[in-house]
C-alpha cells in the first residue's frame, strides 16, 4: 500500500518544474511529500473548506509544516532544531504523538537510531512510542517491511533513471531516487539499531521513604549503562512480601520529567516492599529493590498521638472576630450621637485644609510628623501623583517619635485593610478615655481611609518592616504592593522608577536627606525585599536556625535576605514527612546526656535521616559563619516538627541556651556573613503567616 502511495506521488510530482538538487533538498522534498499521507489527516474537498476562515486554513497549514519540520529534524539528528521546535510549539500543535504514513512517531525514529539526546528531549516534552508496536515481533516485521519496500523503490527508480533519456521527467526521478536512497539508509540504520539493542539494566539509586500515614514515595535514577536503547518508561511494583508474591500493585511511569512515584492508599503500620524496573523498545529489564528494602507508612504525630497545632484555629478566630463585630456594631448603633459629631468635625476640618488646593490631595513635602506612604509597582513602573510624587498622607503632624508598639499595631491592621471603617467605629466608641495611644491609632485609621479613598483601592499591601526616619523628625510608614494586572487608580499614574529617581528635585542636603529622599534612594531595595518576602519554599524537609537578639523595646530574629519570611535554613530532603520511626530515633538522641557518635544500623530510614542531618548541619553552620566544632553544643528542637501546609516542614537547630537570644551589648563572636538581616519578631510572624 505504501509503495503504491509513493508511486502515485511520483507521477503527480513529475508535472512540476524542477527544483534544487542538493541532498538536503531531496530529504525535505520527501518529508514534505510523505507528510501529506500521515494517518491523522483526512482529505477534504475544497468546497467543504469554503466556509472556513482563511486565517484558520493558514494556521493549520503552518502547524502541518511544523510537524513535518520536526520529523525532518529528528531524522537528520539535528538536536538544536528539535529543541527549538519543542520550545516554539506545544505537543498538540506539533502532533507529537500522531504517527506518520509509515506508522512511526518522532520518538520511534530517535530511539531506533539510538539518538539518546533527542529521545530525552522528546520524552521531556511528552512524546510516546507508536501504539503499532505491540510486541518485539511486530516492530521487527514493520522495520523489515519498511526496508524491503524502500529497497524495492530504489531499484525501480534506478532502472528508470538508467533507461530513460535525460529530460525533465528524468531529473525529477533522480531527485526521488536520492530521497529514497536516503530513506533506505535511514530504515536500515533503524533496523540495525533495534536488532543490536538489549533490554535496559535496572534503575539506580532506588530510594524508598515514608510520605505520610498512608503513602510511601520511591525515587530513582536512570540505569547506568549507555549501551542499551533509550529507556521510555518505568514500572513500580509493591508488595507486603520481600519475594513480591503476591503483588499488591504496580504503576507504569511514562512522564519522565521527575523520576519519582508516591504509592497512595496504604495501611498505616504495615511494611511495604518496593522495586522498580526500566523499559525500552526491547522490553522490561530486571527490577531493582529499594533502599531501605521496605517502608512503614506513618507520621511523627503517631508517636504520642499529638493533634496538629493549628487545627481549628483559623475557624475559631473567625468566629471570635464575628462575635466582636456583633458586639461593637450593637454599641455603635445605640450610641450614634456621642462620638459621630466629633469624627465628622475632625474630617470636615481636615478637608478644609485642601478646599482651596484641589490639586493637592496628597502631600508634596513633609514637616516634622508621622506619615503614611503607599508604593504600588508593576515591573519597572511605580504609581505617583500628578505632581510626580509618591502618594503620601499625613497621620499626625505633632507625632515625632513612633513607638514600636504603635508601629506593630499598624502592621497587624494591615491584615484587615477591608475592615478599616469598622475598626474606626470601634476606636471612636472607645475614645471616651482620651488615651493618647488610642488617639494616635485612630489617626492611623483615618490616614489609611484617606489613602484608600484617594487611590480608590482597599488593599494597600504589605507594611515594610521598619519605618523611614530622617533627622528633621519625619517618620514614614511604608506599604508595598505589586500590581499584576493593568489596573487603573484614581488621582495617580504610572511612571518608570528610574525616571522618578532622576527627575525628582531634592529639597534636602545630601548630609541630611528627608525621609522622602531616603525612600527614593532605597526604593529598589524595598521592592526587592517585598518580592523576596512573598516567595515560597519548594516542598521538603528543612533544617532551620533560630537566632534572636533583643533590644530595649523589641526582639528581632535573624533571617536570610533572599527569603526574609523564613528562618535561616538549608534543605534536608524533598520529602517533608518525618516518620514515626525517625521521630522515635530523634527522641532517643535528644534524651541522651552525651551525644553518641555511632550511626544507626544500615539500610534504615533512621540511617538516611542521620546522614541527611549530618550534611545539613555542616551546610547550615557554614551558612551562618559558625565553626563546625561549635555544633556539638547546639541542640535539635525535639518537641515537634514545624509543619507549614503539609508540603513544607522544619526541624529547628538551636544554639546553647545562653546564646539563643543575644542581649543588648552582648558580643556575638560569630557574626553571620553578608546576606542576612534581623526582623522584629512580630513582623516576621506576620510574614511567616502569609
Automatic annotation (TrEMBL):
<dbReference type="GO" id="GO:0000132">
    <property type="term" value="P:establishment of mitotic spindle orientation"/>
</dbReference>
<feature type="domain" description="Fibronectin type-III">
    <location>
        <begin position="202"/>
        <end position="299"/>
    </location>
</feature>
<protein>
    <submittedName>
        <fullName>ANKF1 protein</fullName>
    </submittedName>
</protein>
<dbReference type="InterPro" id="IPR013783">
    <property type="entry name" value="Ig-like_fold"/>
</dbReference>
<dbReference type="InterPro" id="IPR036116">
    <property type="entry name" value="FN3_sf"/>
</dbReference>
<dbReference type="GO" id="GO:0005819">
    <property type="term" value="C:spindle"/>
</dbReference>
<dbReference type="InterPro" id="IPR036770">
    <property type="entry name" value="Ankyrin_rpt-contain_sf"/>
</dbReference>
<dbReference type="GO" id="GO:0061172">
    <property type="term" value="P:regulation of establishment of bipolar cell polarity"/>
</dbReference>
<feature type="region of interest" description="Disordered">
    <location>
        <begin position="1"/>
        <end position="26"/>
    </location>
</feature>
<dbReference type="InterPro" id="IPR039269">
    <property type="entry name" value="ANKFN1"/>
</dbReference>
<dbReference type="Pfam" id="PF00041">
    <property type="entry name" value="fn3"/>
</dbReference>
<dbReference type="InterPro" id="IPR003961">
    <property type="entry name" value="FN3_dom"/>
</dbReference>
